[in-house]
Design a protein that fits this description.
Structural class: mainly beta
Distance between the termini: 58 Å
Radius of gyration: 27 Å
Number of strands: 12
CATH topology of the largest domain: Beta-Lactamase
Strand order of the largest sheet: 2-1-6-5-4-3
Number of helices: 1
C-alpha cells in the first residue's frame, strides 16, 4: 500500500508545511503552520507539539482542518523525524490516513439557476410555471414570476442576471 496523503514539515519551532502531496494541495497550504491544520482537543494538540519539539515520532488521531471555515474531519497523523548526518532533525514526514470509522459526508452547494429556454425549447420553472416567449421584437426579459420587463439594461444580452432581491431575470429573444 502506498500513501497518497503526506506532508514534509519544518522542524520545531517553525513546523511550517514545506511540501504537500497532490491529494492534499489546497491554496495556501504551503508555508502555512502545520498546527493550524490540527483541530480538536487542546490536550491532543499540546501532546503533538511536545512530541515534535522533543524529536519523538508520534501517531495521533486528530481533527484535520483543510479550510478556515471547515470543522474538519477525523484523520490519523503519523509523524516521523528525518535526520541529517549531524543527527539533527531536518524535516518531519507526516502521513495522513482517513479514519475508517468517521467517513465525512460531502456537502454540496445548490446549483445556480439555469435559463428556462435552452436550444429553443421551453422548460418548466421551479414552481411549475412555464416561461413563454414574449416575441423577438420586444427585447424584454421574463423573470420566474412571469412578469414582462421590457427595456432592462441587460435584456439585449441574452443571459441571466441577478436582481437586488435575489431573484434572477432571464432574457428571451
Amino acid at each position: 500500500m502506498t500513501s497518497q496523503q503526506y506532508l514534509l514539515v519544518r522542524p520545531y519551532p517553525s513546523l511550517r508545511i514545506l511540501f504537500a502531496s497532490p491529494s492534499l494541495r489546497v491554496p495556501g497550504i504551503l508555508q502555512s503552520p502545520f498546527m493550524s491544520r490540527i483541530g480538536g482537543s487542546s490536550r491532543v494538540r499540546d501532546e503533538l507539539v511536545a512530541a515534535l519539539a522533543e524529536g519523538r515520532g508520534v501517531t495521533a488521531k486528530v481533527r484535520w482542518v483543510s479550510r478556515a471555515e471547515d470543522e474538519g474531519r477525523n484523520r490519523w497523523v503519523h509523524c516521523t523525524p528525518l535526520t541529517g548526518s549531524n543527527g539533527s532533525i531536518g524535516v518531519w514526514m507526516v502521513v495522513l490516513v482517513d479514519d475508517e470509522s468517521s467517513r465525512a459526508v460531502r456537502r454540496f452547494r445548490p446549483a445556480p439557476p439555469v435559463a428556462q429556454e435552452i436550444g429553443g425549447k421551453v422548460y418548466r420553472g421551479p414552481q411549475g410555471q412555464q416561461v413563454q416567449r414574449k416575441g423577438s421584437a420586444g427585447g424584454g426579459s421574463v423573470n420566474l414570476d412571469g412578469e414582462n420587463r421590457p427595456g432592462t439594461a441587460l435584456s439585449n444580452r441574452g443571459g441571466a442576471y441577478s436582481r437586488q432581491d435575489g431573484s434572477f431575470d432571464f432574457t428571451l429573444h
